[in-house]
Amino acid sequence: MIRTITIHNVALIEDVCLKLYPGMLVLSGETGAGKSIIIDAVSLILGGRADRDLIRSGCERASVEAEFDADGGSGLREVLERENIPTEGDSLILYREISLTGRNVCRMNGVMVPVAVMKEAAAFLLNLHGQSEHQFLADSDRHLAYLDLMGDAAHRTLMDRTAEAYGAFITNHRAYAKLVKMNENREERTEAVRKALEELRRADIHPGDEAELAEESRRLVRASRIHDRIANAYQLLGNGETGIDALHNLQGAAKELRSLGEEDSEFETLAGECENLYYNLEELVYRLSGLTQKYDFSPEALDRVENRLESIRKLGRKYGPTEEDMLRSLSELEQEYDTLMSLGDELEKTGGEHRRLLAQYRAAARELTASRKKLAETFEHRMTEELKDLGMEHTVIQAAFAENTGGKPLMPSPSGDDRVCFMMSPNPGEPLKPMDAIASGGELSRLMLAVKSIEAGRSGVQTMIFDEIDTGISGRMAQAVAEKMTAIAHRQQVICISHLPQIAAAADRQVLIYKHVQNGRTVTEACELDQERRVEEIARMISGAQGITEEARQYAARMLEAAAQKKAAAHTDR
What we know:
This protein is elongated. It has 18 helices and 15 strands. The chain has helices spanning 35-45, 73-82, 115-122, 140-149, 153-184, 186-203, 209-237, 246-258, 265-294, 299-319, 323-341, 343-389, 435-438, 441-455, 475-489, 501-506, 531-543, 550-573, and strands spanning 2-10, 13-19, 24-28, 61-69, 91-99, 104-108, 111-112, 126-129, 396-401, 420-425, 433-434, 463-467, 493-497, 509-518, 521-528. Strand 6 and strand 7 (111-112) form a beta hairpin. Strands 2-1-4-5-6-7 form a six-stranded antiparallel sheet, with helices on one face. It has a six-stranded mixed sheet with strand order 8-12-13-3-14-15, sandwiched between helices. It has a domain at 1-125 and 461-574: P-loop containing nucleotide triphosphate hydrolases (Rossmann fold, 3-Layer(aba) Sandwich). By secondary structure, it is an alpha/beta fold.
């Protein structure tokens, strides 16, 4: 249950802190006083849309903080454990802040969480019924979920069994559908896979091949360049045999100069220098010859390396890009080829499993349907009783199970094969129709109250908030609604915004929501009323625009006294 709720800078509310208790609390006040702002604030805690228009004019941010009794059942515990939210005793504090910048801050016991997590946790703590909740009556998916909520442990076991059977079936179904599709073009695909396997196997790829070949290519290209330069130098210097190279020319020059030695000794010296140059150059040519061997180059080797490298890169574009990717593709193609070759057997095996799992699912779904139909009978009986208390004793309620008129079997679903719609006939002799299609405003309110009354104590949610559920109700029906809400409050904390004095008088506590001008600005405030002020407020609700009369005060006092006596009698009966 909610222990406190603190609202800061939300619309007309500057600072309000409400302390809440078990039982039934009514929030009352004149139209426009700001009661709906309380609901807007609660909606923020429930993970509702953060509308920046909710921020009080002139403020940059608004916040709501609610302290709950943390006993929200196993579902809440799972959320807290999953998100590593620490718990201090039995208290859980949810905090949400919105700002003009659009920033959203959500905290659970001080730990920042996404708004989706807060919404998930709050759903185990609080149920807010507003005008939009009437949409429940038009949503058949929610009707089915509601029936399931009424189920006991055995029913939940059937739900789990159906969901598990669905999980097993759908996994097989997807695999079987894939095999069926594969079988449609098996021959063409088998041939394509076979050619791909031949291509990859012929390539004989190993990890690192491309890098090694690229390095070898660079080495051979470099060797080619060096070899060509050495060969050119060797050709220019020569070995003295071509008649045109440097060695031959030096040798000839030495002979010419030596022949002039008798003419002048200087020519003899020059001839010696030429011979020395010849011997040095001969040594250089010898060394170049050795380098030619060192940088021996084979164009055929470079061609082989380049062709192999291009082949791997081409395969990489198809199956790669890396050798590991290509080897993985090879392994996958081998598995696919084996599957294709044994596809007939695999289809038969998977098809048999498909039929078995579908039959297993259908059996579980039939049991679930049977259980739901029993729940539907209970629901119809309970609704009839609840509506009788609310002045709709002639109303017939039916949880109608939709028939499969399409002829084709329904596709399995995690929730089974059922489609349920709540139907009603408000008057004897009238045909059954969907509730939302024929119910009036007052009837919709009473229908939802009956639904919530049945739900109370089953959902595990400790607090229910009703936002003007008394729409379209007055007189005797207002008293019936008040008594029904009092009965719900025996099992759950009930917070109700109401304009009806009957509901206000039935509450255990009453809070007045009012507004006034403070420092030139309108401010909404809240205060809990004592007995005397409750009489005044209920008298105002009775009198309306005419002003509070003494007769209204006396009637309000009698209403409060009668409500207290009924509670005392009910407590004695328990």
